[in-house]
Amino acid sequence: MSERTPGLGADNAQWVLPAGTAADDGFDLVVDSRHPGWRHTSLRVLTLGAGEVREVRLLGTEAVVVPLQGAPTVEVDGERFPMAGRASVFAGPTDVLYVPAGRALVVTAGDGPVRVALCGARSTRTDGPVVHLPAADVPLELRGAGQCSREVRNFGVPGVLDADRLIACEVITPGGNWSSYPPHKHDQERPGVETELEEIYYFELQAEAGAPAPEGASPVGYQRVYGTDGRPIDVLAEVGNGDVVLVPHGWHGPATAPPGYDLYYLNVMAGPGAERAWLICDDPAHGWVRATWDGQQVDPRLPIGKGQA
Predict the structure, then answer these.
(1) Which element (helix H / strand E) includes 62?
(2) Cα(297)–Cα(77) distance, rounded to whole angstroms?
(3) CA distance 11 to 216
(4) CB under 8 Å to 300, separation ≥6 — which residues?
(5) Is the peptide bond before 254 cis (omega within 30 degrees of 0)?
(6) Nearest to residue 197, comparing CAs of 16, 19, 53, 41?
(7) Is the CA virtual torsion 123, 129, 134, 136 positive or negative?
(8) What pLDDT tens digit does each residue of the chain (309 aa) get?
(9) Across the strands, what pairs with 142?
(10) DSSP labels for 124-139?
C-alpha cells in the first residue's frame, strides 16, 4: 500500500491534521484553543477497549458525545446513559448525549471496544439539562441532487438541540459525489444573512458496499478551503480515516468522494456572535450550481445506512 501524500494547499501545514498527529492525553485526537488561530470549538476522539473507563471534565466547554463505533455508557452527575451506538458511522444515525459546560462525564466501554467523539464549544452556561437524543429522533436530510446528493444527520443544529454555542452534524457523501458544494462561507456577522462560525471537519471513509475493494485498500477523499482577498487561506487536502481539516474562515468546499469510496465527515461549529444560527452564503462564482439540481433525482443510494447492521 503506497503512502498517502499531503495535499497541495499552501496552508495545509496549519489547518490539516493527519490522523495521529494531534493525539494527546490518551485521546486519538485533540483539537482545541491551544491550536494556533483556533478559538471557539473543540473535538476529542477517544478509543476504549472492552471494559475500559475514562473520565472527562468539561471545563468551560459544552459537549455532544457522538458514538462513532460501538455502544458506550456515559455517566453524568451520577446518572447513567446507556447509548445504543452503532457498528460504524456508515451504519446509520446514532443517539447522542448533550452535556453542559462544567460537568464531568465518565465514558465506559461494555463488552466490546468503542470509539466516541466529544464535540465541544466554549461556553459559560452551566445550568442546562443533560439531553439524550435517540437515533430515531435525529432529523435526516437528503440535501442536493444528482452527483451533489448527500445525507445530513442534524442531531446538533438549532431547533433540534438547545445548546449554548455548539452546532454539530454528520454528512455522508456516496462515492463519486460532491458535498459542501457549492463552496460557501460563514465567517462574518451579517444579521439574517451570515453568522461567524469556525468549523471542524473530521473524516472517515469506506469502500462502497459491494465494491470489489482488495485487502488493504486505502480510501481517500478531498477537501478544499480558499479565502477572500482580505482574508486569504489555501487548503487542498487529500483526506483519509481520522484526518481533520480546520476552517477558521473562507470559502470551503467541495468535499469530494472519489468513485468507489463513501465519505463521512463530522462537523463541529461555533462562533462569537450573540445568535446561535447556521447562516451561510455561497461563493457567487459557483452558487448558480444549485439551480441545476431542479429536476434531478436524489441519489438512490441514500440514505447510506439503510439495510446496514
Answers:
(1) strand 61-69
(2) 47
(3) 30
(4) none
(5) yes
(6) 41
(7) negative
(8) 334 445 589 999 999 999 999 999 999 999 999 999 999 999 999 999 999 999 999 999 999 999 999 999 999 999 999 999 999 999 999 999 999 999 999 999 999 999 999 999 999 999 999 999 999 999 999 999 999 999 999 999 999 999 999 999 999 999 999 999 999 999 999 999 999 999 999 999 999 988 888 888 889 999 999 998 899 999 999 999 999 999 999 999 999 999 999 999 999 999 999 999 999 999 999 999 999 999 999 999 999 986 443
(9) 151
(10) ----SPPEEE-GGGS-
Write out the three cell numbers for 106: 465518565
Amino acid identity of residue 219, one-letter, is P
Report the alpha-carbon distance of residue 60 to residue 56 in Å, rounded: 12
Q: Which residues of 55-80 are buried (b: 16+ CB within 10 A; e: fewer)?
A: ebebeebbbbbbbbbbbbbbbbeeee
> Residue 10 class from Cβ within 10 Å (0-12 exposed, 13-18 middle, 19+ buried)?
exposed
Consecutive H or E run containing 223 = strand 221-226
Place of cell 444549485: 290
- Amino acid present at 87: A
Q: Which residues contact 174 (CB under 8 A, 6 or more apart)?
A: 149, 150, 208, 257, 262, 299, 301, 302, 304
- Asked whether 182 and 283 are in contact (CB, 8 A), the reply is yes
φ/ψ (deg, to 5) at 271: -155, -175
User: pTM of whole model > 0.90?
Assistant: yes
Tell me if 239 sits within 8 A of 202, measured CB to CB: no
